Structures are given as C-alpha cells and as structure tokens.
Amino acid sequence: MANQPERWTEATVYPDMWADPDQDPRNSEGVSPDGELATLQDYMQHYRLTILMKCEGLNAEQLARRSVPPSTMSLLGLLRHLVEVERDWHNWIGDGEPLPKLYGRRDADFDDVVAEQSMVDAAYADLSREQAATDAALAAHPDLGERVGAEQIAVRELMVHRIEEYARHCGHADLLRECIDGRIGQ
Hints:
By secondary structure, the chain is mostly helical.
C-alpha cells in the first residue's frame, strides 16, 4: 500500500467532508423543498453535483485511471456510463424508437476509455446533453403515478431508480478518487 496517496480533504471545519459547508455547492439556503416531486428532483441534483465534484481538478490520465484489475471502472468510465443510463431512461419514457447506445457495444462506456482530453470533454458534454434530454422528457410527466413508455413504468419509479443509480456510482467515485489523490469526503 506504499503507492497509495495519503488521505486529505480541502475542508477545514469538518475534516471528513469534501468541502466546508459554506463552499459546498450542494448546500442550499433555507428549508428543503416541499412535495414529493421537488424532493426527488433535489436529491437528483445533489447526486449529479456530487459526481462532478468527485471528478473536478483531475487531468485526463487521472480520470481514466482504472480501479482494481480486472475491473475497467474509472471516473471517466462512470461519467460515460451515466451518459448511457440517462439515454436509457429517456428511452423508457418515450413510446418511439429507442435511441442507440452512444458509445456502441455494451460496456464500451468503461472498456474503451482512454486518457485523452477530447474524450473527457466529450463525456462532460454528452452527460449534460443527455441529462437535459431526460429532464425535459420527465417534465412533460409531472404526475409521479403516471405510467410512461412501452413498459408502462411509473414516473416515480424512474425518478427513484435514477437517484439510486447516481448514489451508487457516487460511492464508487469516492473510492476511485481516494485512490487517485487521497481526497476524501461526503
């Protein structure tokens, strides 16, 4: 374990946090939102910001660094994976012909990662675009009990599934980031 970086944080108030509360973009002023839909959207935004925070300040090589062999998981792979799952959710909402996988074959989102800035830039742009497309598609269905798409999945189930997916991958990102430079925190 001599190659492992020493643990560190930028937080000064609470040493186990990623950032001090007054510097954390996930912290908002006031009370939490009212209503189920607003609460689900708030949690979704929180996890989206968290995954981006776990990637900030790293170069292409660090973002593409694999975790533990034989896994092909990397922070860049996680970003690309979330692009694909956003696209899948958008497909579940609609009744039309599904959009194809953006990165091709299954697991290409992880397996085909290379340490190139152009791939990093594309992943961030793809993620932003696919998140906006899914959000726009869901905005047309504010009734959480409404069933959508060919499989007639409840909007509530889609929302909760999205939160679960991001939360799980934020946990992966915690471990990946700590292995890269020792940075820890919520």
